[in-house]
Amino acid sequence: MLLIILYAKHFEPSIDGLFIPPATPPYPTGGLLTHTFQILCSIPPVVCGFTFTLLRRIEPKNKSNFFLLGSAIFTGGFLLNEIYRIHIILLYFNVSKMSTIQVYGVILLAYVLMFWNNFKATPYGMIIFGVFLLFLAVLIDSISARLSFHSLLTEGIPKLFFGINYALYFWLVCYQQIVIIFQNNSQKVR
Fold first, then answer.
1. Per the domain annotation, does 13 fall within a domain?
2. 67 neighbors 118 (Cβ within 8 angstroms)
3. Distance (Å, whole) CA 117 – CA 112
4. Buried b (16+ CB within 10 A) or exposed e, 45-55
5. Do the beta carbons of residue 71 and residue 173 sit within 8 Å?
6. How many angstroms separate the Cα of 65 from the Cα of each of 52, 58, 126, 162?
7. What distance separates the 2 farthest-apart alpha carbons in the chain?
8. CA–CA separation, 129 and 10 (whole Å)
9. How many helices (H) and strands (E) would you count in the chain?
10. Looking at the domain assignment, is residue 113 inside a domain?
């Protein structure tokens, strides 16, 4: 926090800007679906983190624990990007949005490759379709910038449906892991 305050003191017009509240929408539904998307993005890191903590206490040596921890970290990073708009902030430092998206793509690929065996045991079709929708939203955003038309609705709808798939996928994965562990433990007791 001290580093952020020092940075703001030297490079920003005012350090009071660190505590500017988010912009109030000009009308009641302004930003409603964007905030809904952000809420959907907050579900996976919380659910994965909770499930990891729970299952680590019940069965510390379970192979899925590392997948749940990795998923909590990965989805937490995605949430931070959505809330703080890191890809937009990096534009101030002359880092193009496409460069940032490519880095995020490499991180996604590394995450998938690291946990490929875990993904095969989940309803991964949901998340593949969701990532396709997110890719479509990014494509619409980049095309609209080049063609001088911009409709937040055409970009936002696939992004919102990605958010729904994203939240449901990780909810189901965590539910599935909890059920498996409890079934295995109940069979051991018998």
1. no
2. yes
3. 9
4. bebbbebbeeb
5. yes
6. 6, 11, 21, 25
7. 67
8. 45
9. 8, 0
10. yes
How far are the Cα atoms of 38, 97, 115, 166, 168 from residue 133, in angstroms, in the given order?
Answer: 16, 18, 21, 10, 14
For 48-105, the pLDDT digits (tens) are 999 999 999 999 999 899 999 999 999 999 999 999 999 889 999 999 988 998 999 9
SS3 assignment, position 94: coil
Domain range spanning residue 153? 39-189
Name the pTM for this structure. Answer: 0.87
Cα separation of 139 and 23, whole Å?
27
3-state secondary structure of 22: coil
Q: Which of 166, 171, 142, 172 is nearest to 154 (CA)?
A: 142
Domain count across the chain:
1
For the segment 90-129, what is each residue's pLDDT rounded down to a tens digit?
999 999 988 998 999 999 999 999 999 999 999 999 999 9
Query: Is 15 a domain residue?
Result: no
Question: Cα–Cα distance between 183 and 190 in angstroms, integer?
Answer: 11
Report the alpha-carbon distance of residue 8 to residue 48 in Å, rounded: 34
Q: Is residue 11 part of a domain?
A: no
Q: What is the DSSP letter of 1?
A: -
Rounded distance between C-alpha atoms, residue 116 and residue 135, angstroms: 20
pLDDT surpasses 80 at 133? yes
